[in-house]
Design a protein that fits this description.
The protein is α/β, with parallel strands linked by helices. The protein has helices at residues 17-26, 29-45, 82-102, 106-120, 122-128, 136-149; strands at residues 4-6, 49-52, 55-60, 66-69, 72-76. It is built from six helices and five strands; from the N terminus they run E-H-H-E-E-E-E-H-H-H-H. A five-stranded mixed beta sheet has the order 1-2-3-5-4, with helices on both faces. The N and C termini lie far apart (132 Å).
């Protein structure tokens, strides 16, 4: 494939890849079919593509953000804000897993509400200092993307989430902590019962004088 590269930095998510694709192309067929057509058109244009987990990212020369159509993610190429690019890949990958979950209902539950929230509530978010990820489709996508990749998003203040300024990534990227069993509390032997209170010795009774002592 033209300009194709694979991202090997993402941890493998323990989910059967054949089952994943089978469900996407059966349960999520309408979304993925449109995504595939758009993906092939982008391939013909020679735009850079990348496999990210089980999805395919196309980096397009537009000024918009990201768009996910099932297995196919379309996002801005060469965004000056590296943190935005890092977050968007994880976030849009979460939408891919929403497609797997919702299938044909993805349009109604996620795509249309997300489109309206993104394009018609920008002024509301700026005025009220509300995060773009506050709305349920985006919150859910963040959770799914981080869960599936094992990567932790770096979300700044709402005003800086989609900033055009160059914001480099931190040197050490945070990772999602793996799920572990409940911590085992070490066994401790029961404390010894408190010692019984010491009873004072009974007072010594003085022996009564013998009435016949005068005979001695």
């Amino acid at each position: 494939m033209t300009n194709y590269e694979k991202n090997d930095q993402m941890p493998n998510f323990k989910f059967s890849e054949p089952v994943f694709y089978m469900l996407q192309w059966i349960w999520g067929l309408p979304v993925n079919l449109i995504g595939l057509i758009a993906f092939l058109i982008c391939q013909l244009k020679g735009w850079r593509t990348e496999k990210f987990g089980y999805a395919y990212i196309v980096y397009v020369p537009w000024k918009a953000g990201g768009l996910t159509l099932g297995l196919f993610i379309f996002m801005r190429e060469d965004h000056p804000n590296e943190t935005w690019t890092y977050n968007t890949r994880i976030h849009e990958y979460g939408h891919t897993w929403q497609t797997l979950t919702l299938g044909v209902f993805y349009w109604i539950v996620i795509a249309i509400p997300s489109f309206i929230w993104c394009n018609f509530f920008d002024g509301y978010r700026k005025k009220n200092h509300v995060s773009y990820y506050k709305f349920y489709p985006e919150t859910w996508a963040n959770y799914s993307g981080q869960k599936a990749t094992g990567m932790q998003m770096i979300i700044p203040e709402p005003a800086q989430e989609r900033a055009e300024e160059a914001v480099p990534l931190p040197e050490e990227l945070p990772a999602v902590a793996p799920e572990t069993a409940e911590p085992v509390v070490p066994f401790a032997p029961p404390a010894a019962p408190p010692a019984a209170p010491q009873m004072p010795d009974p007072p010594q009774m003085q022996q009564p004088a013998d009435d016949w002592d005068f005979l001695e």
